[in-house]
Design a protein that fits this description.
Strand content of chain A: under 5%
Low-confidence stretches of chain B: 1-5
Structural class of chain A: mainly alpha
Shape of chain B: flat
Low-confidence stretches of chain A: none
Largest interface: A-B, 47 and 39 residues
Oligomer: heterodimer
Structural class of chain B: mainly alpha
Radius of gyration of chain A: 25 Å
Helix content of chain B: 55-70%
Number of helices of chain A: 14
Chain lengths: 319, 390
Amino acid sequence: MLSFIGRSIVQKTVTLFFVSVVSFLIIHLAPGEPSQVDPLNPKFTPEMVERFQKAFHLDKPLYVQYVYFYRDLFAGRSVSWRDNQSVLAKIWERFLNSLPLFIVGTLITWTLSFPIGIRAAIFRGGLYDRSTTFVAYLLISIPGFFFAYLLIIVVVNSFHVPVIGMETFGLGEAPWPSLFMDRIWHLLLPSVLGATGGIAVLSRYVRAQMLEVEGQDYIRTARAKGLPPEQVHYKHALRNALLPFVTMFGLILPGLIGGSVIIESIFSWPGMGRMAYEAILARDYPVILTVNFVSAVLVLAGTFISDLLYLVVDPRIRL
Amino acid sequence: MNVEQRPVAGDSRTEPPRAERQTRAQEFWQRFAHNRLAIVGLMIFIIFFCIALTGLYLTSGPNPVLDPALVRLQEKLRPPFAKPNLETLGPQEVPALGVYVFGTDDLGRDVFARMLQGASVSLFVGFVAVGISVLIGIFMGGIAGYFGETPIRVDHILVACFFLSGAALAATGLIFFGGGLLMLGLAYMVYPLLTNNAPGKRPVPKWLRIVRQKAISVDTLIMRIVDIMLCFPSFFLILTVVALLPASIYNIMIVIGLTSWMGTTRFVRAEFLSLREQDFVAAARALGVSNFRIIFRHMMPNAIAPVLVSATIGIATAILTEAGLSFLGFGVPPPHATWGNILSDGKRFIFDAPWLTFIPGFAILIVVLAFTLFGEGLRDVLNPKLRERH
């Protein structure tokens, strides 16, 4: 156990190092210089360009820039080139905005996909199973932005509530129930949209797992000894089918920072995805690299946690 | 089996098998035809393919039948099936079908012509991107699965580092230093050939034994590369690279292809790991068949099924990614119309001209759905584990 932890930490650190190198190279070897963003601006004299380059170490060779950048990142001193704010503070602020979307989306995904998948597996081949299968493929195939517009039109036309942004502007004096409902309405659509793909994939996965377990011998035994079907399905089958999903708690971790770029731009939601998009537009290299680095850390931490959980949950596995 | 042998076998006493002769394709088709959704997917896919080809023929060339780029400002935002106003149009500007089948957009361009052009662009992007990713995936997965245990020695890594850094330095302007490193790597490779110092023939000097140590196996190396690539959030990475590179349809295809080969690599590797141990591979090796031929002629046809499935679904994903990029304004640049472009331009008029949003949106939905259904149907048919259960 301890050796497994030690080994995987070393392995993941090495992977992280290479990720940082590759992302740094991708950003810096792309054509164009960040100091030449606006060559037509008359206020942008060559002296200023030189001063910028000095301030952000852009005149140094690449490997020196790499060391400087990650030194600053780990010391928490790296600043956005766009507005000189601390990158970590910026990311934290946007992260707090994305967090409710992530929590509500994950809750919707996990609470909906399990009943759907289990029911589809129990009544396999029936009308319910076939229609949920089709709907799942439909949800996987629909372009997110198109689905967003469909939902916006439906909700706005039938409920007459504003949905764009995080809250309605200028609602300061309203009583708290209407403020609360306002927040809920604004939160609902983006999180439902964020959850659609997850529901489709996860419910299919739950169904496959249930079918796998229902085909086992001990289920036949349980049925043969006359247990009521509910007990067979929910006590004998479901418990064993749930095993792989415990590990998926680790794998949803990267979703924390993934905040969908497209959905957040449609809904003007000031979250992580939108910040990353704005940073890309402005060639704000520190922000892009930091977002990339943090998400790589989360991916690695997620797989590590899911490996550990597997170890704890399934005694047959020895790593 | 040789063609000449067949009549001989028929003349002999052995009875031919009673069961009807069934080729692999027939058997495959029988099983596939049971899956109604997959059949629908395949049919839509074929129709879409034909539409894209005719669209390419009708909308390209110097004098296209349906010109997707023709601007008629006096005819803007006409609804679908609107008759063109013949008094204000020149003879060149009248749409070939005599009616705007899908209406016109805010510049008076014929949406039908633009959709036709977009179909071929979407198909092109999907196929080329998936082609790139499948090629890389098969290559990497094949090497990892077949040569898996072959160790890479420390000196291999050193030489590779010499070459890479030498080339990088030469490219950045330090030609003398970089060239020196390149020569050093070359000299190390050529040295054993000149002195005929093949490993095992003569004892290796002690100082060389340190660098001859086994560092890492090929399999581990490739799988670590896959792990590194999987750490990047894929859409964000694609968006970053596409935004930094100059806008072009080829860049988008290449970038989508280069960021999506990891799944194929894993499938091919897993298949190869089990195929490598089987008798027909051992037989081929005993016959002295070259490694290259074993990999591509003997093992690859047996490993192709999961690749085919992931490629079909990969095309759907590539079309969706391209539409998403177009939607954010980083997609295929203007002379080409794509469905994502049309939707992204039309979203400003969603209440005045809803057809500009709905037609491309449903088109993307239907095509991607067809690919997904077809791919899942293929998975059911090709996967022997799933087959037995039904």
